[in-house]
Amino acid sequence: MRYAGQLGLAAALLVAAAPTRAAAQGGATLAGGLNRYDIQGATGTDWVVSARLALPLGTYTIAEPGLTFLRWQPVIGTKITYLIPELSIQAQGYLGRARPYVGAGIGLSTPSRGNIGVTQEYFTLHAAGGVRFGVSRLWAVRGEVRARAIDPFSGTTFDFLIGVTQGSGRRGM
Q1: For a tag site, which of 14, 70, 90, 172 has the least CB within 10 Å?
Q2: Can you list the positions of beta strands (E) in 40-154?
Q3: Could you read off the pLDDT of 93-146 as tens digits, one per residue?
């Protein structure tokens, strides 16, 4: 868990460093969807939920701390649930109301329940791409694909997410 504290500190520093002139383009997202996994020889599909906060660092750059909750079924035993705090850096464009983006980041997979004795935490790396689409000044919908390597590179997950973002500002999202 010592790494989770370091990730939290990094996220807090990014919040403090975010310039206020771009803060109107941020927003909080709640998303859900499917997770396709290949971990420790087990493959399958299960659900995934994430909560994220977009923190603009400039006109085209966003820091996005978040939490992802996913499950997977090992070859032997009961399902394992991971809570993954993550931090992404994203490049975002502007096409009318659409905000396409690509990004990459790090995280820490922490088993929250599952097989007895599964307590190992692993670093994760991820790449993400998607689009935020402003439907009003305060709301947006979001679609994303996120590829993640757990204990790089012994396991992989692919998240396919759809979510809603509550933000504020002149540009809608």
Answers
A1: 14
A2: 42-56, 61-72, 80-92, 98-113, 122-134, 139-150
A3: 999 999 999 999 999 998 876 555 556 788 999 999 999 999 998 999 999 999
